[in-house]
Automatic annotation (TrEMBL):
Its EC number is 2.5.1.72. It is an enzyme of class 2 (transferase). This is Quinolinate synthase. It comes from the Bacteria. Its cofactor is [4Fe-4S] cluster. Pfam families: NadA. Keywords: 4Fe-4S, Iron, Iron-sulfur, Metal-binding, Pyridine nucleotide biosynthesis, Transferase. SUPFAM superfamilies: NadA-like (SSF142754). PANTHER family: QUINOLINATE SYNTHASE, CHLOROPLASTIC, QUINOLINATE SYNTHETASE A. Pathway: Cofactor biosynthesis; NAD(+) biosynthesis; quinolinate from iminoaspartate: step 1/1. One of its GO terms (molecular function) is transferase activity. NCBIfam families: nadA, PRK09375.1-2.
Length: 300
């Protein structure tokens, strides 16, 4: 276990800042300089002054930080941490759609590979997808890779024509409605707060649908004292920190992203010490991928 002074000294030596997603382990969130959802972290990454960014998240997050800061060193505490959904789109399908549909915008969830971003027109996250899609001039929207977020956006923007892809986050897709209904039965006054990556049945029973930061804000500001939370368990740490007196119920099967949990305090300290797991993005991909991220930052 490292103490605060030693960690501060290590960060100073490496001129580093630590970013962590809400799904990272509590011990990692506690040592991070910035903790947030995907959109917040990409905005922060775009303005970092330090020469090193330690990103306690998954691969696409580290790559986004690198794309926005090609001159900086971005270190992943564990370079095996990847997002399953990011690999659920065949870029050939994007090309086919471009040939088939006129007036098409390819809207890519930030949970995607750099190669997919290069084939896209704009990136979105779960907290800004509706807003950005509404602002696009195009009638046809190819939404990739997440079918669940895509369906949620399509419901809010009925004036556009959506083409979907069959990708999903296994952690949210495999959450069972029966578990949510059992929780509702046990806690009839609890509001159901769901991430838009959840499957359709869960979304249809939710009182609020939003990103991780949206869920945190809703739980903090709502007068209700009981919430059923349909997203990854890592968010519990900030929910409890914000208000330990409120009750938060998760499905019994505990939705856990094992990739996010590869980020341990030991692995953060290790990369700070030895500078390993530096993210590499091929030079020719940086500018075209950056274009989609900058467009998101401008439109959001
Ligand atoms: P947000 O942080 O944008 O809510 O997304 C959740 C997620 O799946 C990150 O991988
Ligand atoms: Fe990817 Fe799902 Fe893990 Fe988020 S929770 S990183 S979408 S696998």
């Amino acid at each position: 276990m490292i103490n605060d002074e030693d960690l501060t000294a290590l960060k100073k030596q490496r001129n580093a800042v630590i970013l962590a997603h809400y799904y990272a382990a509590p011990e990692v969130q506690d040592v991070a300089d910035y903790v947030g959802d995907s959109f917040y972290l990409s905005k922060i990454a775009a303005g970092i002054k330090c020469s090193t960014i330690v990103f306690a998240g998954v691969k696409f997050m580290g790559e986004c930080a690198k794309i926005l800061n090609p001159q900086k060193d971005v270190l992943m505490p564990d370079d095996r941490a990847d997002c399953f959904m990011a690999h659920m789109i065949d870029n050939e399908f994007i090309k086919e759609c471009r040939n088939k549909f006129e007036d098409l915008a390819v809207v890519c969830y930030i949970n995607s590979t750099t190669e997919t971003k290069v084939c896209s027109d704009v990136c979105v996250t779960s907290s800004n997808a509706v807003n950005i899609v509404q602002k696009l001039p195009n009638k046809n929207i190819l939404f990739i890779p997440d079918k669940n977020l895509g369906r949620h956006v399509a419901m809010q923007v009925p004036e556009k024509n959506f083409i979907f892809n069959d990708g999903f986050c296994p952690i949210h897709e495999h959450m069972r409605i029966q578990e949510i209904l059992a929780l509702k039965k046990a806690h009839p006054n609890a509001a159901v707060l769901a991430h838009p990556e959840c499957n359709e049945e869960i979304i249809n029973t939710a009182d609020y649908i939003g990103s991780t930061s949206g869920i945190l804000n809703y739980a903090a500001q709502n007068h209700n004292t009981e919430f059923i939370i349909a997203t990854e368990i890592g968010i519990m740490h900030k929910l409890k920190l914000a208000n330990a007196k409120k009750n938060y119920y998760f499905p019994d099967t505990v939705p856990k992203c094992l990739n996010m949990k590869l980020n341990t305090l030991d692995s953060v300290v290790k990369v700070l010490k030895n500078g390993s797991n530096s993210v590499h993005v091929a030079e020719e991909l940086i500018e075209p991928a950056r274009r989609t991220l900058v467009r998101m930052l401008e439109l959001a």
